[in-house]
Amino acid sequence: MDETYDAIILGTGVTECVLSALLSIQGKKILHMDANSWYGGECASLNLTQLYNKFRPGQEPPTDIGRDRDYAIDLIPKFMMANGELTKMLVHTDVTRYLEFKQIAASYVYRDGKIAKVPSTEMEAVRSPLMGLFEKRRAKKFFEFLQNWNDQDPATHQGLDLDSVSMEKVFAHFGLEPGTRDFIGHAMALHLDDSFMQRPARETYERIILYTSSMARYGKSPYIYPLYGLGELPQGFARLSAIYGGTYMLDKQIDEIVVNAETGAFEGVRSGDEVAKASMVIGDPSYFRKGVNGKDKVRETAKVVRAICILKHPIPNTDNSDSVQLIIPQNQVGRKHDIYIAEVSGNHNVCAKDIYIAQVSTIVETDKPELELRPGLDLLGPIYDKFVTVSSLEEPIDSGRDDKIFITRSYDATSHFETVVEDIHDVWARVTGGEKLVLKKREDGEGAQIQG
Prior knowledge:
Layout: E1 4-5, E2 7-10, H1 14-25, E3 30-33, E4 45-46, H2 48-55, E5 73-74, E6 80-81, H3 85-92, E7 101-103, E8 106-111, E9 114-117, H4 122-127, H5 133-148, H6 167-173, H7 178-188, H8 202-218, E10 223-226, H9 232-243, E11 247-249, E12 256-259, E13 266-271, E14 274-278, E15 281-283, E16 298-311, E17 324-328, E18 339-345, E19 356-363, H10 369-372, H11 374-377, E20 385-396, E21 405-407, H12 418-432, E22 438-441, E23 448-451
Parallel strand pairs: 1-14, 2-3, 2-15, 3-11, 8-17, 15-21
Antiparallel strand pairs: 4-5, 6-10, 7-10, 8-9, 12-13, 13-14, 16-19, 16-20, 17-18, 18-19, 22-23
């Protein structure tokens, strides 16, 4: 281990493994370390024994819900948008050859005390209880406006400038009701709260186009999910990194982040008596909580509460779907943040046959976090077993450009990967001095090129 590398990467979450692969493809010499004995870090997928050991040490897992090896339960629930950035990264880097995906059956939204399906076809939209007849006409005009928008053609703008007009004004232009704004902003544009209403409409326009184009790709829902759980994603990118010369060390204790005594710049990582040297380090916040050289490196921005629930039935009122994304917009339950529910099943090779794994998550707003999940838990029907965690959402205090210590962000409460991809782009820009990450598929099919 006493070698010099271009970069050392700490933690094997999706963000870190993607960055490791992208740097390896560029010819960088990478050492990738994790204190855990498994891939995935915070977003690992655990079997039953690992799950019970983590949450209830010493308690044997139950024997009436299938074999240990049938399970790969995600610690953090996330779905991928079929047309989203992470999917494009998988395709462009050829990591898809290591993975198989299955579509999530349907997307739902909680409205006026009921679960309603987010329409996936025009016929479903016509029949949807989400809107009355006149509101459907107004919504149709709104969606036609978005689909027909052309930056170069003012005739498609209806007098609106997406870069300066707020989303609230665009909704008002089409006369959309508060409930419709809720469902579009939270279940389609996937905003975390209502602050998007005051920001320029361009952001929400792009998010809705991503949702509708992802929906159009496979029908039914815009989400896909890897068979055998999310732990497969970092492993796929780790394999790619290894092909390009990346070195991986799991179960490796990180004892010290070594910096230059005078400049404070990163020099290496110590594990026991060994020191690996590199010109920079990229890592998840957990490796920097104690600070570096007496300086704080990460701050807590919020807390997220998650409940992993084992069910013996699909979520009621979801048409017996084997998998769903269900969003409870904040306004529907008098909160500041949405509640997310993600459900997968034995059909995704993450649990035994006829078992369902539902995860409920949200940003903590009170001193009773589990109670905040109640609106979501109440929709699940009888729960066989439940594991609740409260974790800190952390982010770097500075860019890392001065001391070459680049820290990623924690995984938020959303049940999709779009915010993770934003972090990958952000870290890439910091590491490369402002370069934009552009992936271009190689013509020889041998993985990816990265253009600065």
